[in-house]
């Protein structure tokens, strides 16, 4: 049986539940109000980071096709991995898998002690605005051709984990299945840094994509976390 401790995220200060619950309750009507203010191209999502597998607790709008009870995106996972050191992420641009351009802001929610427990996210579909801007820029000879990062928004945990793994494959320029052990440890370390293993089914999905057993993923995860905590800075052995 795989060791349970290796699959859990490193211990972090816990948010005050009573404060977190009160703030989330207070923000639920704000979600609807913001979405109504910005119109049909806006989506507002309220996340409870204490439950990453089902962090979406309130939602208005349909930009990313999320539903209440859905899992965190990889952006949310990165925030969760940073814990209380995370900072608000404002006005960033991503592209959905179906090609739409989305301008987003992630505003973190904290309790009285500064512990992060959730976020309020605003997603604005600016696809048509960018097309209009490109057409106008073309008239003056200044077309923006910079590619935008693709973000997967999904209620399915497996899709989120798979998307992060595929991003690592693209970054490394090679398939990750059946890679060498040392390379696999580096991949596990990168996925852990991005908060992937905060999700309950992540280890199984990672194991399938890397072509190893779930027990191997747990063992690798324990090694990279142990190396990260080692005072002499040593890395996992070959």
Low-pLDDT segments, ≥5 res: 1-11, 230-238
Average pLDDT level? 80
Structural class label = alpha+beta
Order of helices and strands: HEEHEEEHHHHH
Total number of helices:
7
Compile the SSE list and pairings:
Elements: H1 17-38, E1 42-48, E2 56-60, H2 74-82, E3 89-95, E4 101-110, E5 116-125, H3 127-139, H4 157-172, H5 181-193, H6 202-210, H7 214-229
Antiparallel strand pairs: 1-2, 1-5, 3-4, 4-5
Helix pairs in contact: 4-6, 5-7, 6-7
Descriptive overview:
The protein is of the alpha+beta class and 238 residues long. It is 41% helix and 16% strand. It has helices spanning 17-38, 74-82, 127-139, 157-172, 181-193, 202-210, 214-229, and strands spanning 42-48, 56-60, 89-95, 101-110, 116-125. The protein has a five-stranded antiparallel beta sheet, with helices on one face. Helix 4 (157-172) crosses helix 6. The longest helix is centred in the first third of the chain and has 22 residues, at 17-38. The protein is globular and about 50 Å long. The two termini are 24 Å apart. The model is unreliable at 1-11 and 230-238 (pLDDT under 50).
Outline:
With about 240 residues, the protein is α+β, with helices and mostly antiparallel strands.
List descriptors.
single chain, 238 residues, alpha+beta, five-stranded antiparallel sheet, 41% helix, globular, disordered N terminus
């Amino acid at each position: 049986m795989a060791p349970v401790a290796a699959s859990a995220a490193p211990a972090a200060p816990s948010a005050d539940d009573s404060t977190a619950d009160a703030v989330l309750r207070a923000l639920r009507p704000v979600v609807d109000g913001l979405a109504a203010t910005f119109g049909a191209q806006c989506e507002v999502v309220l996340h409870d980071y204490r439950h990453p597998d089902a962090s979406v607790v309130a939602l208005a709008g349909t930009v990313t096709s999320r539903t209440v009870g859905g899992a965190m995106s990889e952006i949310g996972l990165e925030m969760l991995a940073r814990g209380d050191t995370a900072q608000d992420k404002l006005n960033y641009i991503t592209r959905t898998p179906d090609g739409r351009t989305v301008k987003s802001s992630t505003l973190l929610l904290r309790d009285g002690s500064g512990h992060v427990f959730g976020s309020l996210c605003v997603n604005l579909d600016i696809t048509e605005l960018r097309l209009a801007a490109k057409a106008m820029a073309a008239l003056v000879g200044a077309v923006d051709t910079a590619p935008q990062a693709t973000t997967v928004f999904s209620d399915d945990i497996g899709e989120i984990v798979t998307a992060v793994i595929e991003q690592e494959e693209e970054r490394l320029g090679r398939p990750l299945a059946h890679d060498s052990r040392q390379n696999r440890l580096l991949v596990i370390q990168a996925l852990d840094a991005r908060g992937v293993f905060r999700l309950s089914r992540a280890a199984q999905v990672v194991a399938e994509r890397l072509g190893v057993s779930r027990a191997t993923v747990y063992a690798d995860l324990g090694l990279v976390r142990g190396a990260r905590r080692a005072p002499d800075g040593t890395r996992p052995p070959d």
